[in-house]
Amino acid sequence: MRFGDGAPVTAYAGDLVSQLGPTFTFQQRDTRHPGLDGARGLAVMAMVIGHTLDAVLSPTVREDIWVQHYWTCRGITAPLFLMVAGWAVVAALGSKPTAARDTYGKRVRRALLLIFLGYLVHWPGWSTVIHMGLTEKMLTKVFTFDALQCIGFALLAGATLLAVTPGRWGRTAMLAVMTVGLPLVSADVRAMSEGLPGPLTQLIGSDGFSRFAFFPWAAYFFAGALAANLLGALRPGVPQGLALLVLGGGLFWFMRGQPQDWGPASAWLVAYRIGQGMMVLGFINVLPRKVSGLLAPLGRLSLWVYVLHLPVVYGWSSYAGLSSRVGPTLSLPAGLGIGLALLLGCALVARLGTWLRDQARPWRTGSTTLEASVGSLGSRGS
């Protein structure tokens, strides 16, 4: 094929590339971090199977030593989701000084979507709302605060702070203060929330309310953002993975030597889980790309798998879920089978939904998705 003067198209393309410089490419760059989607995929797998087992395993099976070990390991799932979300937000900013301000509106919209979906999956139904009336008890039930809302509010706070904090070192200091400060003040802030309206108490945190309150759970988001900011100069993959393994292993080892406190507002527990989360991220990063890539497709669908599986397991509105229809009656193999089937089914539905969305909006195909820039999600298990 030639233009009117007879020069081939390839010659024009070559001239254009030479003028734009060696970094120019006609192909869209892959801006996704090679380890983040794999970490999300591992976390969402543990989340769905963990929720299913929690809903259907019989009390006798729960007492098994291996199941108890699994419950202990499962506690990293929600912190890992939050850390990946924070990492993804900072990694997406790149080196452009004004990136945080330029993308602020998009971040706010995504945060509001996460908060809306988080409250939606806990909707108790109109019959419950009408029966309870306009009371604080009803508002507390309608505005049940869970991990997805925590990610949304953390993203909202993080995007705002990143947009107003100048310079790389200023951003580093801000993220460090939030990572360390939130757990340290959580016990006092939660104590001061006593007597506030139920929805606000759940957000802030108080004994007997949300297990994923902003204080101290948002610290995991800022810890992931801080790690991304500090390690951004390293190449994704093995270099970043080794750094994460060293930092996470050192923090984990140090915290194991400190007095243990497994309370809901424990600063020790937050640091302990951050160390574990960094080691998991490091392990996924050092894996060969072909191995971590097996989990990546599931990681990219993690938000929608989260939204889809919760009503199936725990019910939604007036529809009963597995926890009510089956109850704690099954053996471990049966529970694992149901969990894997649910994971596969939700992933297929989510993939079909994203495909239909892409067909309806072809101009958006290939753009960064919600899961890529926000991270994903949380879990009921802790």
TrEMBL record:
Pfam families: Acyl_transf_3. The chain crosses the membrane at residues 69-90, 111-130, 142-165, 172-192, 212-231, 238-255, 267-287, 294-314, 334-354. InterPro entries: Acyl_transf_3_dom (IPR002656). It comes from the Bacteria. Keywords: Acyltransferase, Membrane, Transferase, Transmembrane, Transmembrane helix. GO terms for molecular function: acyltransferase activity, transferring groups other than amino-acyl groups. Residues 35-349 form the Acyltransferase domain. This is Acyltransferase. It comes from Corallococcus macrosporus DSM 14697.
